[in-house]
Amino acid sequence: MPGHYRPRRKIVAEINVVPYIDVMLVLLIIFMVTAPLITQGVKVDLPQADSQPLPKDSQPPLVATVDAHGNYFLDDGSSNANAHKQLSAQQMVVKVRALLQLNKNRPVVVRGDKNARYEQVIALLQLLSQQAGVPSVGLMTQPDDH
Q1: Where are the membrane-spanning stretches (predicted)?
Q2: What is the CA radius of gyration of the chain?
């Protein structure tokens, strides 16, 4: 029919972003829930002792860890995956020296597994104090249960 004219549909050239926003919010919630679970780098059972915690106004400490097998790890407080990376004694010295050059007053704490041999913890203390030049090293413990 020559007189019938069908109206053309208008083409919508916009992208619907609502599904993308939904996915982004779900991912944000997942990251918010899992982020606190990733804070501890290496599984270590600390010995228990009566001790005072670090002052709240102090900087986050460098945490040098000795696990039950005598492996060394260093957590500098950043959120990267380096806290999970095993270090040799020389790598530990180099990293601690470099981090202390940035901030000489930063506390250094040794976190030794209660199943680690005493000699391994002492060896790390000697590395930090004698070779890395750390003026003062603390020992991390679990609070006593009584």
Answers
A1: 20-38
A2: 27
